[in-house]
Task: inverse folding
């Protein structure tokens, strides 16, 4: 990941979302959040008629449009989110959290090497950007959620930024501490 990049994190029930993406009409999925991003993505010409297609016929949707729709659904269904966190500050927070919780999956390096979060049929030539599944173990997330607010602010990070990131990450970890939840990252 490039230094200076931004990272977004989403706590979402990825298993249910993937199943729904494969089996339910696309407009039905978007209707759950009428002002969500998925509604806007469905206006794209390649997706406008996709609702009438059977799940197997959805393979006709261009991969880029299908991935964009899946990303929008992740965003719309997330229980907690952190948008555009600066990578250096988030890396420092995750490193401190990893030490406090004694859990290496909390290191940002684990996010950088995490597996794709897209359904198998949407995985193609992976790029450096996209959705990855960072933490899918609710025990890891729950343990980290209890530790995140006890961290001291390092001198190298703006205290206000640190507190904002810690608060948002704490909400994401708490949500991901529930069964079937995962933290999905985008960079």
Result:
């Amino acid at each position: 990941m490039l230094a200076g990049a931004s990272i977004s994190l989403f706590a979402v029930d990825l298993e249910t979302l993937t199943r729904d993406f494969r089996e339910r009409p696309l407009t039905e999925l978007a209707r759950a959040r009428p002002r969500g991003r998925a509604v806007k993505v469905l206006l794209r010409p390649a997706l406008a008629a996709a609702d009438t297609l059977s799940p197997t016929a959805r393979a006709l949707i261009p991969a880029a449009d299908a991935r964009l729709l899946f990303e929008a659904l992740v965003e719309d269904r997330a229980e907690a989110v952190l948008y555009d966190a600066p990578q250096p500050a988030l890396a420092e927070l995750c490193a401190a959290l990893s030490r406090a919780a004694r859990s290496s999956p909390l290191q940002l390096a684990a996010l950088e090497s995490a597996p794709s979060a897209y359904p198998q049929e949407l995985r193609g030539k992976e790029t450096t950007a996209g959705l990855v599944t960072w933490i899918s173990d609710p025990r890891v997330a729950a343990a980290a959620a209890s530790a995140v607010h006890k961290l001291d602010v390092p001198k190298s990070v703006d205290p206000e930024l640190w507190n904002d990131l810690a608060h948002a990450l704490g909400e994401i970890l708490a949500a991901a501490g529930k069964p079937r939840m995962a933290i999905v990252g985008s960079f």
